[in-house]
Amino acid sequence: MRAAASAPCPGGFFSPAVGPATYHGATMWDPNLSPATAALLADALLALHTGIVVFVVGLLPLVLLGGALGWRWVRHAGLRIGHLGLMVFIAAQAWLGQLCPLTVWEQALRRAAGQSSYRESFIDHWLSRLLYWDAPWWVFVAAYTAFTVIVALAWWWVRPTQRT
Fold it and tell me: What average pLDDT does the segment 55-61 reach?
């Protein structure tokens, strides 16, 4: 199965729609979107998704290193709450077998753009190779769960500062 690093398995609450992405029947964008605009939006979503992955994965080693080196910014409570919250959301999606909403919307936009898996933009070509891997569903569940536990443990190893 080809799955996103942040979205393990198809189906569930955010099933890919045919045409515009929908959420409880509400269209997420204009169904008359031009193919060029849909492709541009799909590339933008892929870039955003990659940025989120870089933040989630990259912040943990920075927090651990920064804690050891005395960097104050790694103890910022809002940053750490956001980081842990994202990981809990990602792990919960994996356990529930749901795709990330960003993945669903990107795929629907690519369909609206008339793009196939053989024709892709430069951004799609390179960024998708960072995000999407072939692996069984359980590998993603285990990896996301383990990473979430490590992020939670980092909360105690490098305690965020409390504002007074």
Answer: 95
